[in-house]
């Protein structure tokens, strides 16, 4: 993957209240650092040598130290009760995501001079964070041993990665949404509130740039790379030079337009005029950029590619964007799912898109024409889609979306892609999510979410949920168990 997501370096600052032994925070910080290095990548953390007492001057010194060390995330570690003012000012003045964890007591043989009371101090820290309107990540149970706190900090890494990335992200879009795709339309002001920049362009601008790449000397090398990736699935070799030209156009556009931003995602247009003017569909190129860590959504879905970028940061892997598309036919369910997997028919659905999913996430791939588009356009201009069944395994389906009045809402559901042949076309898989039927009705429909959902390959709901919470998203839907009815669920319905 390309370098399109941040590298996280967490500055760990131990704090100490002046009426408690400072040595507690020092020794506990040293034990925490040792525990992290023993289990995880030590380049992800930095040990600030300054142990802060109840002093704003020391707080400033610590901030300067971790800044000079190149830290872009902060962990405030309560080695004892902690100074509620200075420790929360650390988070206030640090330019990046922050977390708070606290030390548990070590031994019943040392509960006098060796008692730190960080369990109590965390309450005061949380109160002061709220008092000052400071955002911070606090784990589910934020008090633990050195080893447990090391695990908590490691869980913060992907969360911080996404939060840092959003602050330095530019989304580049091309063209208005196609006709009858109002579902992907949403206000862009919430993007600015998140710190995301947006550059909106015309399809005509993109077409001009594409034409200027006619005869680009790099095209043959890109074609060779495409041929190697497609292998036996290279069924449309005649279209590869055009696709290579388009790929180079997008990559050059990114370099010329990302400005002061470090990371980029694209919301592209793919129909109806795209095919007739460019002479192909962009699906395969979209899949190739996404496989390099540059998410590309279809149908100018700005919040779709925003969601994909969050998933890329959190999972450190390729993501995709799919339609929550169609039901699984009863005969497929009866033959291939019932009795083999613990899902009802309503727990299953097919996730589909024309061909934007990376070949690395397909069981096999074939270059084909886009069947849906070819129903109303000449087949020869719909070449360039990548088809295949999606690899089976754990997935997280999620989306961050703005409502029409500019409020952010989101959903997350964990499940799996079943190892069952789809018998269909496009990049497609049979998805199974517990209680999907109720989730579909009371979150997706009730929440007015569009048909596109981002897919991360693995279970990342815990981290993505914390990212959404940190961003201030108040409504986060998930697939609730039967014992927990949705607010809109009819209690009398069978």
In words, what does this structure look like?
The structure is a single chain. The protein is an alpha/beta fold and 494 residues long. Helix content is 37%, strand content 20%. It is built from 16 helices and 18 strands. The strands form 3 sheets. It has a 6-stranded antiparallel β-barrel with strand order 10-11-16-15-14-17, surrounded by 4 helices. Strands 2-1-3-4-5 form a 5-stranded parallel beta sheet, sandwiched between helices. It has a 4-stranded parallel beta sheet with strand order 7-6-8-9. Helix 2 runs parallel beside helix 3 and helix 5 packs antiparallel against helix 12. The longest helix is centred in the N-terminal third of the chain and has 22 residues, at 146-167.
């Amino acid at each position: 993957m390309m370098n399109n997501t941040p590298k996280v370096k967490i500055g760990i600052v131990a704090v100490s209240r002046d009426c408690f032994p400072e040595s507690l925070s020092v020794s506990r910080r040293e034990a925490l650092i040792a525990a992290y290095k023993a289990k995880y990548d030590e380049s992800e953390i930095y040990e600030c040598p300054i142990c802060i007492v109840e002093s704003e001057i020391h707080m400033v010194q610590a901030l300067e130290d971790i800044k000079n060390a190149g830290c872009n995330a902060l962990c405030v570690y309560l080695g004892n009760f902690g100074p509620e003012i200075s420790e929360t000012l650390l988070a206030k003045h640090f330019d990046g995501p922050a977390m708070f964890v606290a030390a548990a007591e070590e031994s019943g043989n040392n509960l006098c001079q060796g008692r730190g009371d960080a369990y109590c101090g965390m309450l005061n820290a949380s109160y002061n964070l709220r008092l000052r309107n400071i955002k911070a990540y606090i784990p589910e149970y934020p008090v633990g041993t050195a080893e447990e706190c090391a695990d908590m900090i490691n869980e913060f890494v992907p969360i911080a990665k996404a939060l840092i990335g959003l602050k330095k992200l530019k989304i580049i879009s091309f063209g208005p949404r196609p006709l009858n795709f109002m579902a992907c339309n949403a206000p862009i002001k919430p993007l600015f509130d998140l710190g995301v920049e947006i550059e909106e362009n015309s399809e005509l601008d993109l077409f001009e740039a594409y034409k200027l790449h006619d005869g680009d000397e790099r095209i043959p090398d890109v074609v060779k790379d495409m041929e190697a990736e497609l292998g036996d699935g290279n069924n449309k070799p005649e279209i590869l030079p055009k696709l290579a030209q388009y790929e180079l156009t997008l990559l050059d556009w990114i370099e010329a337009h990302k400005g002061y931003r470090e990371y980029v995602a694209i919301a592209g247009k793919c129909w109806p005029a795209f095919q007739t003017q460019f002479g192909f569909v962009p699906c395969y190129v979209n899949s190739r950029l996404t496989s390099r860590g540059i998410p590309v959504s279809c149908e100018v879905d700005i919040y779709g590619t925003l969601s994909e970028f969050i998933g890329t940061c959190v999972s450190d892997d390729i993501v995709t964007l799919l339609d929550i598309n169609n039901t699984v036919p009863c005969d497929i369910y009866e033959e291939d799912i019932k009795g083999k997997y613990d899902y009802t028919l309503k727990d299953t659905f097919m996730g589909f898109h024309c061909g934007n999913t990376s070949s690395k996430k397909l069981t096999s791939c074939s270059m084909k024409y886009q069947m849906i588009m070819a129903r109303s356009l000449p087949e020869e201009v719909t070449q360039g889609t990548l088809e295949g069944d999606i690899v089976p395994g754990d997935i997280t389906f999620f989306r961050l979306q703005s409502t029409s009045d500019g409020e952010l809402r989101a959903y997350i559901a964990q499940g799996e892609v079943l190892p069952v042949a789809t018998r269909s076309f496009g990049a497609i898989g049979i998805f199974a999510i517990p209680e999907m039927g109720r989730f579909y009705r009371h979150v997706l429909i009730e929440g007015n979410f569009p048909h596109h959902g981002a897919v991360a390959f693995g279970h990342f709901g815990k981290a993505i949920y914390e990212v959404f919470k940190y961003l201030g998203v108040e409504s986060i839907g998930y697939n609730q168990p039967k014992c927990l009815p949705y607010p809109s669920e009819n209690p009398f319905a069978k």
